[in-house]
Amino acid sequence: MLVDSTLLMDFHKGDPKATRIVQGSTGQDLYTTEISIFETATGIYRMTHNPSRALTLTNIMLKNLHILELDRTSTLKAAELRADLLNKGKPIQPTDCLIAGIALAHGINQIVTLNKTDFERIPGLSVLAY
User: From residue 75, how far is each of 27, 62, 99, 105, 106 by CA, in Å?
Assistant: First the structure.
């Protein structure tokens, strides 16, 4: 199961639903992407008076997740998804295409997010909203 930046930010803020998902995943591998870390860090820099402390706490949390990088296979899958959505007139954020491309290229077909609207447009990806 892949966790999106919405869950990472909410977990960081102490949201009980996000915390339950992360803590309740015992025995199940949780993944995230470098793209989601980028989005999360951007949010921290924008909304936190002490980003250094917040990023330290985020790094501690990330030690419990498998972090997937953007590689060539993922990039091409993301480009395929984006082109298909653009052709259908249903574009989503490029970063969401990258996240979905990384997940699908690594055989992960479920994402946990509050961003249902965008990710539900991705064929082959099921969305678990929390």
Answer: 29, 23, 10, 9, 12
Q: What is the CATH number of the domain that holds 10?
A: 3.40.50.1010
Give the residue ranges of DSSP H helices in 1-130: 5-12, 16-23, 34-47, 51-62, 72-87, 94-105, 116-119
What domain range is 104 assigned to? 2-128
Tokens representing 107 are: 């055989």
CA–CA separation, 28 vs 25, rounded Å?
A: 5
pTM for this model (two decimals)? 0.89
Residue 106: the pLDDT is 97
pLDDT of residue 25: 66
Number of structural domains (the chain) is 1
Q: What are the pLDDT digits (tens) for 35-67?
A: 999 999 998 898 888 888 888 878 887 888 899
